[in-house]
Specification:
Blueprint lengths: L4 E3 L4 E3 L9 E5 L3 E9 L5 H6 L5 E4 L2 E4 L2 E7 L2 E9 L9 E10 L1 H9 L7 E5 L5 E10 H12 L1 E6 L2 E6 L6 E7 L8 E5 L6 E5 L13 E4 L3 H4 L7 E2 L6 H7 L9 E5 L13 E6 L4 E12 L8 E6 L4 H6 L2 H10 L13 H13 L55 H7 L29 E3 L25 H9 L17 E3 L2 H14 L3
Parallel strand pairs: 10-13, 14-20, 16-18
Antiparallel strand pairs: 1-2, 1-5, 3-4, 3-21, 4-8, 5-6, 7-8, 9-11, 12-13, 15-19, 16-17, 19-22, 20-21, 21-22, 23-24
Helix pairs in contact: 2-3
């Protein structure tokens, strides 16, 4: 490494016998640049050691760092000193502008206002294109504070060559390289920081003014597409006499708006390598699906030992949405569960759940509905409802009342026929008032109500709910063991004994008065031992 020189204003000597591991160079874009180290007093460096005092300079790679903090220590016969030395450009704080001005500034005018007439030897230059900016009450501050304000408002980046200050536009700062920060090559760790505090989504631009104070074109307002995400956040307006065309201002404004999150990435390097301020590198970190261009915005170097630098980078695109979508912790987990079509992978589920998902997927139609024609099993009655939008089989109209299938009132349950139902039935021949069984009037049905019916449905399951002659007014239970026999009697008359032998008509109805049918049914049950 390069020698460290110590200059106390009178003499300049090479520093030896310092702790190599303690020597660090720290730099951060527009805010920090310093050296620190610990020196041990020995017989060989007693003169140089005595020069390590506040306001002395350490010179490293041609740059001057001014010692502003020292911590001398003594342990037995050993003497050591810890020193901190910021870069010499920070001494510009010793110059002050006492006056204030409010106007539209160019960056050259602002720097001249901040540093003009300084007696400390500071010079400056700008590189790149900068807007003009309205700054009110600019001044009455030290030059370092004013420099920080200039860098912020004009979007500049500072590079200092001792006391010569060079301010670059963002577009001109840094250099492209073919270097990489890559997982399992020179880094094993990435940490990200995403900051939305400085986001602005609206900016207004004013062009050249006429002599009477009017503008050559009306103010132009630009709204970022991200206004829908972050809301309306106004940036300081741009006032620039260089613009005499409205379209040119409109094209320029988006470049002056910070409408994306600031993303910084810390990736400790595994090997010692040269790192330069502002250089671009390709960051490839497969576990997080990152493959992006980044720019070095901070580092901590250990020049005297074989120790990798600690590097902080910024995603120049500042597209936090794309970066965050690449987080491997989420992406890999989601990819294990969801396939490319958006369906849940059965391999991500337990066998029982997986089988259920497969069955559900088999029943699901492209429009997201269930095709129950492919289903097996049955729906529980207490978990099924029929409501608006229900479709019924062809030929079946639920609005038409099918009298034989209505349950009658019982001793423990209200009848299902209400007064409204009765009104709907008035036009059915032969029914009369016998069907007026309501929830409020449990008038239990008697067999006489059936005398006018000349037929009953073929399905004899209905017969088990009829009021019988022996127990009028209540539903007579029929033992389940006789149910199949009852079905046979109506479906195959040839096997029915003489005691009950109705005729089945082509329309599926039984040609027999209902009262006679019930009597025959009771007789048959008695004959069977029921």
């Amino acid at each position: 490494m390069d020698d460290l020189l110590v200059n106390d204003g009178t003499n300049e000597e090479i520093l030896i016998d310092y702790d190599p591991a303690s020597l660090t160079e720290e730099w951060q874009k527009n805010s920090a640049w310093s050296l620190s180290l610990t020196a041990l007093k020995t017989a060989r460096n007693s003169i140089t050691y005595a020069m390590l005092k506040n306001e002395s300079k350490i010179i490293y790679q041609g740059q001057q760092f001014v010692i502003n903090h020292t911590d001398p220590k003594g342990t037995g016969p050993l003497s050591t000193i810890d020193i901190s030395a910021p870069h010499i450009y920070f001494t510009c704080q010793d110059h002050r502008q006492y006056d204030k001005q409010s106007k539209i500034w160019s960056i050259d005018e602002a720097m001249d206002w901040a540093f003009g007439g300084n007696v400390h030897g500071f010079t400056w230059e700008t590189v790149g294109s900068f807007p003009t900016v309205q700054i009110d009450n600019f001044g009455d501050a030290n030059a370092l504070s004013m420099l920080s304000d200039i860098l912020s408002k004009f979007g500049g980046v500072l590079e200092a060559d001792n006391k010569h200050l060079i301010i670059y536009s963002e577009a001109e700062w840094g250099m492209m390289t073919d270097k990489q920060i890559r997982y399992q090559y020179n880094t094993d760790e990435v940490q990200m920081s995403i900051d939305t505090s400085a986001i602005k989504t609206v900016i207004r631009g004013y062009g050249k003014q006429n002599e009477d104070g009017s503008y050559v074109f009306p103010p132009v307002t630009y709204e970022s597409p991200n206004i829908g995400i972050y809301g309306e956040r106004h940036a300081d307006p741009i006032r620039d006499d260089r613009f005499t065309n409205e379209d040119s201002m409109r094209a320029y404004l988006p470049s002056q708006l910070n409408d994306e999150p600031d993303v910084s990435i810390t990736a400790p390097l595994k090997v010692k390598e040269d790192v330069q301020r502002g250089e671009h590198r390709l960051l490839i970190y497969e576990p997080m699906d990152l493959d992006i261009d980044v720019q070095i915005i901070a580092y901590k170097k250990y020049p005297a030992v074989n120790k990798p630098p600690e590097v902080t980078s910024s995603n120049t695109v500042k597209d936090a949405v794309n970066v965050m979508s690449g987080f491997s912790a989420a992406a890999s987990t989601v990819n294990k569960v969801i396939d490319s079509s958006g369906s849940i992978k059965d391999t991500a589920l337990s066998p029982t759940v997986s089988e259920s998902v497969i069955k559900i997927n088999d029943l699901t139609t492209p429009d997201g509905k269930l095709d129950l024609t492919k289903s097996e099993g049955k729906l529980q009655e207490d978990q099924s409802q029929i409501g608006p939008g229900t479709t019924f089989a062809a030929g079946y109209d639920p609005s038409q009342i099918n009298i034989p299938y209505y349950d009658l009132a019982t001793g423990s349950s209200d009848g299902l026929l209400s007064s409204d139902d009765k009104n709907k039935l008035d036009d059915i021949p032969g029914q009369g008032n016998a069907l007026n069984v309501t929830a409020t009037d449990k008038g239990l049905a008697f067999p006489e109500m059936y005398k006018t019916w000349n037929s009953i449905p073929k399905d004899t399951n209905w017969a088990i709910t009829l009021v019988t002659l022996t127990d009028p007014g209540l539903m007579a239970p029929i033992d389940k063991k006789y149910l199949n026999l009852l079905k046979s009697w109506t479906s195959d008359p040839d096997i029915v004994p003489q005691i009950f032998n109705p005729t089945v008509k082509p329309d599926g109805m039984i040609d027999m008065p209902l009262a006679d049918w019930i009597k025959s049914l009771n007789d048959r049950i008695t004959a069977l031992g029921g």
